[in-house]
User: Fold these one by one.
Assistant:
Number 1:
Amino acid sequence: MRKIAIVLLLGTVFLMPIEEVVSIGGAVSIVRLVGVLAILAALVSTRMRLPNPPGIVLVCLPFVLWAGASMAWSWNLVDTAVLTGTYVALIAWVWLLVGFFPSEREWDLVQTTYLLGCYVGLVVMLITFGIRSQLDEEVASRVSAAGMNENELALALGLGVVVAYHIMAISPGIGPFRRALAGIYLLTAPIGILLTASRTLAVGLVLAVPAMIFASRGANARARTALIALILVSILVAPFVVPDDLIQRSLGQNLETKRDTSIENRQNMWEIGLRNWAEVPAYGIGSSAYKTMTKSLVAHNSYISVLVELGIVGAVLFVVIFYALVRLILATRPPHRATSIACLLFLMLSMLTLTIEATKRTWMVFAIVAAMARIAPVERRSPEEAPALEAQNA
């Protein structure tokens, strides 16, 4: 039964980058179904004696409990109850993912599985783009995989870039086939992200990749050089593949000549949300009630979404989660620390324009940071050892 639980957990990781593509009728998420089965299989296989929860799970628990408590005052009780169930499933999923894959070799399997899922999303996206081009359709419009939001796909692909770099340059036990797989992905993924024309995620990747390279002291030097070369080649090839309008939109260069109504709409949604939050600043309007307030529109900003829905209390608990993640990063030794830094930076920038606090991709970052801290903890030395070590280094 434990093997079944492991396979199901890996199944959720594989399907995560293409979650919307494999939903049934656009409503029933296969990833959620597989995740629930994985949790049940894990409970059965361990006879309810699960591994000790990682620290990040304990830190996230008060936030989840507060989201559940908001059912008492929510503007939409049903949606709040559903989202509370989602949070409970996510926190259990992170617990099991980190607990069932404790070693670096096992976690490499998790990351390789996620990369394969990203490949599926990328391939479906490129096929869609190719069909559009052959049919002479308007190829300047944003491209995505079937059924997926462009920004959501860009987020999944961007996290895949960080994972691919880890596989290629940091993981010690990875064979040549998986390194080649990661290298090909690093060459093609930036083109895919440009095709989504997601401005914030493109900028986030531009900031996250140099941070990752700079922070990865001790990584494979040849792999780091290869990463830089692959990304440069991808940038040089992009103008010949990606329509100019999509490149300009990704870089924000068309905002002066073309009115961007998406930005105006988001600003209006933020203003509406903050006005309503001012009436109940301490506890908010209830988890997942933002859509009720704006008549089916989300915040398009995770920080504003949490503040409006869960008030100052929820926002503080949300900030505490990120404080804990930073502490975990500081407790991780290089070069593994670079993976955590890049993931968290990319996620935090993505949250500026996406409402993703309750998605598996966000909680996958929580799991990655926790796993890196467990796999590669900073070595603690006694005060007596420190002078000798300094003398040796000198």
Number 2:
Amino acid sequence: MRAPPGPAFQATWGRRRRRGPPAAPAAPGPPAPSGPARTPAQMTRTGRTARMPARMTRTPARMTRPAARTRPPARWSGGDPALPERTAENDPGARAGGAGGPVSVTVRGRLSPAEAEAVLRLVGAAAAQDGVGPLSEQVVLHVRDGGGPGDRNVLLWQGGELAGFAHLDAPADATDPAGSSGELVIHPAHRRQGLGRRLMRAIAAEAAGHPVRLWAHGDLPAAAALAAGAGLTRTRALWRMTRSLRIPLPEPRLAPGITVRTFVPGQDEPQWLALNGRAFAGHPEQGRWTREDIDRREREPWFDPAGFFLAARGPRLVGFHWTKIHPAGGPGGGPEGEVYVIGVDPAEQGTGLGRALTLIGLHYLRDRGLAEVMLYVEESNPAAIRLYESLGFSRAATDVMYGPAA
């Protein structure tokens, strides 16, 4: 990750992402987790917007796949030509060589199709090795699309192979003291060579002295050790909670005056975005969603409006439960349901709407024949955790954000 932090990198790493957390690459590789769940006024945001986070493990490269063979571009390769390439020759912090060959770093705003494909192959190799996706759904979607305005994609090459990748989000505001969030991953075949620290230095350079928050999926000991070596501490955590759908479910009970229907694409996006903004007003990821974010997900093969429930009081939307079905990840490698996002208007707090919407979505997933459901929730949200535990969920894993000590 990085050597002891200097003034330019009093960093944090950030997700997402659920997170949540991680997300499924379009090409090879298993699905990465979705975003984080949230609650109180926002019940949960499990698409780890969310499954958020940075792959910082140093697992021995057992039977690992070869690293992506896409060569580092000598010149512009169809991505964003505006950002400089940093190599071992012009970056004093880089390793000029080593067991794996020369090291160089390319920084892009947008990725070329070949670069995006190489990143997704790397993500698949890391997920297969570690048993958890290294990037959040949000970052995987950005990689597939080439990137977003203000984002930075850092490609680390060793011996002509893509050995590492990091994504740095644009900060919500240039004056935001929270800075940017990022995620990183090193290919299993290139670990234990200091490349994680090398990638961290590159992220610090791109952050230009601003804080950076990084997510680590899985709360693995190697990630914690790497963070400690960089002077970073645990600042936030997302729980991944699961529940069997073979266990009986209570029936949902709606408050008087509440009706529930399903989402209508092309009609409900503006009202839903306004409700999402109210429900997640204080959330660093979910609260920033734009029309582009929801449009991206409507283009995903998993999107199904039949599993996207909207609650209304009269003409006004006051709550929602967006479910998701993963093709794998459940018992025996079968499909798995997800409480992707639940949001409740602050004006409806205390009416039981969050619980009712949760149950409506769980009944829907069970009726689709799924055996298990999962969600992400902030560790700092005890009210939401109590709700989910009362419905039979239990913690299965944790994603951790590391940042500068307070």
Number 3:
Amino acid sequence: MNLLIAIMGATFQKVMDSILNLSIRENVLLISENESIFKRAEVFKDSQFLIIITEKSSSGSQAATVDEQISSLRQQLVDKVSMLETQFVASMNDTQKDLKRKFQDQQEKQKVNFSEAENSLNTELKKQLDATVQKMNEMFTEMKSQNSNIEKQVAQFSEKMKLIDEINTAVKGIKSI
């Protein structure tokens, strides 16, 4: 009979020891079952800490495991940030090279366009200059022709003046007789 009482007492003690853990576990299960009702983002929007609930164990290995998990998460975060930073720098370098290449291509196009415009302008100026020179040559030829006509007229006028002088001399000679 004592044995039966001892077994019943031990069983009762085990139930009493685990009753707190079981009640917390039941509450957690209720929360997880009603997750759609519970709006975690609104409730914890101003929270800055991570709360971890674990069963109490007799050894300190559980706390070490949590610290290891936090360290692991921290390292994963650092690795991810480092990888993203490397990708960002590579992307920026590629973008910079691409922009530089596009800028150089644009400069080359502008040089070609400028050269074509300059050649076109030079050709047009040469045409205008040739036309002007042609007109000037025509005018010079016309002026030579007019000059030749003027020289002929001056020569004719000189001959007429000589005749008039001779006639005047003859008239003076007649008047004096």
Number 4:
Amino acid sequence: MIQMTPLAANGHTIDPCAVFFPDHHGSRRYSIEPTTPQHLYALAANLRPLDVAEILGSGNSVKRSLWRGYRNSIMCQTAIVDGTVAAIWGMTVGFVDGLSMLGDVGRPWLLTSPAVERVPFAVVREAMAAVRRMLVVKPRLENYVLASYEKAVRVVRLVGFEIDEPIINQNGVAYRRFHMTRPIAIGAPIGNG
């Protein structure tokens, strides 16, 4: 039996794992897809300036940070808006100082291009859903956001993270730690029974 791969209007193949979301006119406005290396290259070439500043302030390069985030994430997805990579997010669980694959902490991350601003409410909705999935895997999530990146700080807060006061890193750049702990269900057994 021959498996046919559907084609989009532009002739590109459609990822069978992609989830499409219509805009209010019913057209396919954006999709969420499993991240590929091609997505990383597309985003690296089109990151928003404050996303670049956030990466450089940590002492890393853009391509290295994107690749390490992708490679070390157990969850990594891409938002495509009007055919453009708008955002990539994931949760790293190892190979980062202070993290262990076996530990309780996951490090969520999100990097964006200007295309993300075409669907601002969708970004928050998708981020909230991603965080819920992350909390199923790791009971504690934490990372840092560039303190001067007001839009990112606002999104982090809207998604439900607690945000600490700014601290200065080893490169002299101010970041704010954000964190969240999975709520414990009332009546849930504790320990071995």
